[in-house]
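From the pipeline queue, job 12 of 40. The input is one protein chain; the requested action is below.

Action: predict structure.
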Amino acid sequence: MYKYLLHKIILPFFFASLLIALVLSAIFIDIFIFHNPINEISLTESLQELFLLIISLTFFSLARQYKNYRAGLFLISAFFGSLFLRELDFLFDPLPYISWFTFVLPLVLIALFYALRNQENCLNGLQHFTKDSSFPLMFCGLLTVLVFSRIIGMNIIWQNVLQQDYARVVKNVIEEGSELFGYTLTLLATFKYKYKLTGKLFF
């Protein structure tokens, strides 16, 4: 009983808490060391992009290894790859007639075409992942990124709360900090799923 509590609850909670604390220290580094208002070129944003790239590449690697789940895992990889490209919008905005969508659309179309051509395989892969114990953590991470951070980071909220003391950095810290937390949860879920499949945490 004690071993179960130690290995299944206490140690995973301690490890996750330590990782989240270390990752979110990026906010302190941006503010206090770099004096950065957490704009698009910051340590906080860079970690978000790095985590998305790692997640996408991890699922792509798993798709190559596991033929029975390939189409489903490739679809998940493409989803996170699209989020990664979306986070790089600051690189594409200065370019005329080009945006992040220009690069995301081909990736989405390829993933959907492959999924439709291999429907049973795709469903097997998605079902295998959603039934895994890592999926609830991934689900919470995505809710944090796609819903919570977007709502809590709305300008109108902080303009009304702070009024004449409004500073965009406050909004940025809340929104980007929430996003980074959500991406950390998705990264943890990805590593957990990879470990269940391969017995390895890294490539």
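Job complete. The chain has nine helices and no strands.
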